[in-house]
Amino acid sequence: MLTSAMIKEAARKAGADMCGIGPISRMAGAPDEMNPKFLFPEAKSMIGFVFRIPRGVQRGIEEGTQFYQYPSMAYGGINEILAPACLYHVGKVLEDAGYEAFVYRNTGARGCVSDMDGSVGATLSPEEQIEVINNAKDATAHHRSVEFTRATRPGENVPPDLQFQFRLCAVACGLGEIGWSKMLLTPEFGPLQRVAFIFTDAELEYDEMYSGKPLCRRCGACVRECPGHCIPPMNSGHDIVVEIDGKRCVWGDIDMWKCYAFYTHAGRYYNPFVPKEVFDRNENGNLNLLEGKCEASEKEIMKVYGALARYFPSWVGYNMAKCGGCIRACVSMLEKPGGCMHGRFKNPLRTRRQPWKMER
Ligand code: SF4
Ligand code: SF4
User: Fold this and answer.
1) Fewest CB atoms within 10 Å of the CB: 178, 197, 215, 241?
2) What residue spans define the domains of the chain?
3) Where is average pLDDT lowest: 139-143, 220-224, 330-334?
4) How far is CA 237 from the centre of its chain?
5) How remote is the CA of residue 9 from the centroid of ligand 1, in Å?
């Protein structure tokens, strides 16, 4: 007989660092367009897998010495290689026992609402817009959400390809909590992981949702260290509150589109690949958003991406990450006494050296 213990053992052997299992009914409060039950109506259980991000993958950004390991290893490597292989292997265990394994890796689904902000209709990420402009005649746009997708059984299902909220699903599988920075925090790895899922018709023994000491310290380090000021201050009233089967999740209402610009391009002081003169010239006001001279909008972000496209240093399939400030700030705080990562490493992430910031 198939048990949760067998699945977790298979997950561990296949490379997952944590595995949690919850009933899919815990996601009942999600909007239909983001509720995984509409993926597979007979599914009873969701199995969540955590793949740790090695702390050292961000060392280069922390030191200002190496920027492509994080997107290539911690995004590309996990999302495209490690996690799919694990889903495949655990899926075989389920299907060998006569149950179906609806595997769901990160990333790629583009549903009828944007995974960025829930907006309806066709939305493109900035680099996708550039791709479309450059290849207008012979390429299909790779959207964040798609406009013409329609339910195949109106009234019964929702338009494909449904994209659910990974982090909330991980909470529902008992793997952790959401921090103020909107990152998933786990007791073992803090903010350092990516997740993937299997939905199955097997009924299993379920994990409780995390109910220990709050993982987020409400320290505000992520707010202070975001170069774009994308994360609202603690207690500013700009929070999002969601309940998952009675568990209250609260996080800051992050300006996701602004983060899109800063995460990739980092701004004047934290992007060593763009000459200072480019920021000084700020041709046509294209860098107003990075220079703090306007609010974030899709149009302004497009201008940033267009102006800085030629300064992408290494293309690793995923957006170049030059920021990750919120993650490193969080690790650094969670490693201190009282934090869930305390004692995990022999040496702290941060040495006595001052954090780097370019003089410009
Ligand atoms: S990834 Fe960077 S820009 Fe985005 S919220 Fe975190 S610190 Fe801010
Ligand atoms: S840096 Fe502090 S406030 Fe921000 S998510 Fe981490 S623990 Fe929470």
Assistant:
1) 241
2) 4-206
3) 139-143
4) 23
5) 35
